[in-house]
Structure formats: structure tokens, C-alpha cells
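User: Could you check the structure of this?
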Amino acid sequence: MTIHQHPLAYLLGLEGIALMRAFAGEHDADFTQARIDEIRALLDRAEEFGSGVDLEPVPTSAGYDSWAPRYDGPGNPFFAMDEAVLLPILDSLPPGDAIDTMCGTGRYAGHLAERGHRVRGFDMSPGMLDLARSKLPEVEFALADVAAMPVPDASADVVVSALAINHVEDLEPAFAEAARVLRPGGHLLLCSMPGYFFGSRLSPFLEYGAQGEIGYVSEWDHSTGEFLRAALGAGFTVRDCRELVADVPAGEYAAEPELPQPGQPMSIWDLHPFVATAAAAVRNDRVCLVVWHFQLP
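Assistant: Sure, the predicted C-alpha cells are below.
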């Protein structure tokens, strides 16, 4: 569906969440008054932020094709965060048959191969798979959906899916497929990203399509209950669940912000510097990754 994004709406939303946290006792009177003053200043310059933009959906595969050339670039803190939890689990498992599903450029396929596993990787983005093949020519990569992997029943010992399950709206088919391809006692390792739009199950993010058009790729913020119902319904037991947080100091947004160009959308990262203290207060101590370890009986 077409969505409307107004830069000022996001900024005022951040201020509102920061004020709610202050109301609950996390911040003092000076912080509260500063947020109110900042809201007043934002409203006084509302015209500078334009009238917002309408965005059309970009297919997930097309968005990741566009993202592929820069996906492995530096600056993504989530890689180190999920690896700090998932790699020790992989170190505890004996080598066997492994699947990296929604594999992207093959980050976990590489980790699995290094640990002696026979690895297969699947993704819906040809661009991502091309990069994965160039990095890991010894791994078998193929185009496939997370809910329909071209492998026999009970043919894998471990399935990994990192930082991509949020693109799946209905978790149950994905969990059922993982249960199908795993052997008894097999492990499913998942890393999900809670959405950035507090209070909404939707979490769209800006991306370019195949023709360079700007749109959004759909994501869904799945609750703990959704994960548990899908996992338990597929026959998994829960071995562990880790909620990872990151400190976000206000200094992260020290760069001078640039106002949006007419008709051009702005990413939330470009908007944060306008309300640096509020943005840091909202994001600080917030769960930004959830790592799950499931196992079949």
C-alpha cells in the first residue's frame, strides 16, 4: 500500500516518546522542559520540513538487489551484536549439514563453513546471492523462499536466519519449513529486529527499486508471542532468547542536519540529528535485536 511519511511527524513522535519516558520517571524536569521547548521550536519552523511524501512499496527482493553492493560495508553494528550471541552457539554444535536461509551475502554461510559444516544458502535476492557466491564458491547457493526451501525432509542439523525474518509477515510457514528440513534434535537460530516505529506492527524502511525509484521495503515487528506460537506450533522447544540493547549517546547525532529536499523522503537516521537528545533518549536501552535458539525434540 502507499504510505505517507512526513519528517515533522517522525520528529514530534520521537519527542512524544521521550516525554512519555520522562513522565514515567526516567528523566527530570529540565529534560521535560527542554523537550517541550524543542517541540515549540520545531512547530515554529514546520514549513521547512515540507509536506511529506507518499511512498510506494518496493518488492523485498528488488530492494535487496539494490542494497547488495553496499550491504557488507562498514558501520553496521548489528553484525557484531548478533555474532556475539550466535557464534558461541555454533561453536558448541558438531559439524553437520547447515542451512543459511534468507542468507543475504552469505555472512552466516561463511561462519558455518568455517566450522566445518556442509552449507546451503537460500535467498530471494539474486543480487545478494551473486555476492555470496563470489565470496564463498564452495557453498551451494540458490534462489528460494524461507517457507519453501528445495531440500529433502530431515536433511539439516542447523538452520540459521539472521536479520531478515522481519520481512516475513506470517511466521508460521517459515517455522513449519524449518521443522520439515531439520533432523530430530536439530537447531534453529533466529535473529530478529524490533521495529523502529513504536506502537506499530509495521516497520517500513527506505530503499531503492530496480529502476532507482525510491520506495519502502516492508517489515513487520513480530511480538514475542508470535514467535512462540509459530515455534511451538511447529514442534520446537525454546532453548534461549536474548534481548540485546545498545547505548546510544546523544553525541552520535552531532553532525549538522540537512533539511529535506522538496518531494524527497528522509531516512530516520537523517532525521535524528534534528532532535539528538530526544532520539538518544528514545533509543537508549531499547531492545534492538532479539536472538532466539530453538530445537526440535
